[in-house]
Amino acid sequence: MRPATFPPQSVEGTGLQSRLHTVLPAPLRVEPADGVEFFLTPGTTIRTTPTPEATAVGRYLAELLRRPTGYPLPVVPAGRADAPGGISLLLTDDGTGPTPDSTGEGYVLEATASGVVIRAQTAAGLFYGVQTLRQLLPAKIESGRRQTGPWTVPGGRIEDAPRFAYRGAMLDVARHFFAVPHVLRFIDHLARYKLNHLHLHLTDDQGWRIAIDSWPRLTTVGGTTEVDGGPGGYYTQEQYREIVAYAAARHITVVPEIDLPGHTNAALTSYGALAPDGVAPPEYTGTDVGFSALAVHNELTYRFVDEVLGEVAALTPGPYLHIGGDEAFTLSLDDYRVFVDRVQPIVTGHGKRVMGWHQIAVAGPSAGRVIQYWGTGETDPAVTEAVAQGAQVVLSPGNRSYLDMKYDAGTPLGKDWAGLVEVRQAYDWDPGAYLAGVPAEAVLGVEAPLWTETIASVSDIEFMTFPRLPAIAELGWSPAAAHDWADFRLRLARQGDRWSAAGITFHRSPEVPWPGTPVVPGPRPAPAAPEAPAQAVAPADG
Ligand code: TNX
Fold this sequence. Notes:
Structural class: alpha/beta
Mean pLDDT: 92
Bound molecules: ligand TNX
Number of strands: 17
Radius of gyration: 25 Å
Largest sheet: 8 strands, parallel, barrel
């Protein structure tokens, strides 16, 4: 059920007021001011609190709006004596801002005839207010080319704050490598829906994607392969820093994953001494899992892990190092525990919190540990036990949040081991009440992983990501009380025009009433006469 201030609605038609009710993820509270609207004009100014962080959000907004509008939109410091008007992004700790939320990511947006004011306690809050403002403008604001206005914002007030602190997506750049610009584009997709973590799956059997100075063959050898024999590739440390900085400018924390002790064939091919038998295995470009592992009883392995994680930690400002931990099928449970129990203190020794796939729950506790649940069932005793000992959980159930699952049996890309995941399946669950014995307070958040065994291009990425990523984003951001499939599918339908304007490929799910699509497609009427073949076969003139 929606909070009382969010009235039942219809988004049929394209009326201005309806736009206030199509924001996705659904905000905490929305109060329309009927008949009021703000016009963005060639004279509009963006005023910000004069801190570097708030100014950066103002510049980000200006850059989003300048191309489609063609307006100059100067970004200037907000002063006390300013006349109202234009767009103001104001940091506030004087009680005029949003009700304090535990993440500090909340904001209040007020649109009147004279201006739009976004207030927040942090620049992240201003940034999320800006994402909302973007959705209040007409869909053509997403176009990369100059469009004609009017550029209207519906009047009203939105008060908003996230439900969970961790709202993420994962991109597997190991099975297929994706160059920096493609990763930056993916980051922009996350930003639209107020996600704040990008998990990069940087290493796997098929490739090692981040340069490690102390172990150079990881990329000069291990970086040259990928699924199906493509050329692979890797990020230099400078390129990785560029990804981290681009994400940070969008208030997104990068979570690097070095998958250990399994999923390591590319590392073993690069350095045979790390293999259990000391012999480098051949490179691997297939899609099987679970066949590789580091030598658990060899001290060289722990020097390797320490030096690799040390370099990755030094490159990564965020608090987490993800150590994988999944599908180490060649190890005994005892050996697996020995390994994880040795690696966890290495992570904390480098000043980071351990994050890992939920298999690591069987190892001993580690302060600040985050366990990422990717199963398809709703109970896992080892996870329950780890939570009882203080671990937090990120929910990524395979049958709900996996962006590499097929939508339906006919989906040309993806896998189906966790089931088919259409949009409603991705949306209709509650991360706060999903796993038995894991109370909402122990849930740090949600993440949608995109594994790329079958995903090889940007349009493949987008086809699998849209529209499911917005569904997971809403679970991470919106209050549980706002959960409502009937309402969500209408708001989602209105995002389609934005993706089209932005050139984003998406799956036109039959569960969603996209504008221009009949809601209940009837049988195709039989043509009364064969279609006139006029232009098709007319011979070209002369
Ligand atoms: C399982 S999910 C894996 C990955 C695969 C994925 C394919 C997880 C932690 N491990 O290695 O890419 O299935 O859906």
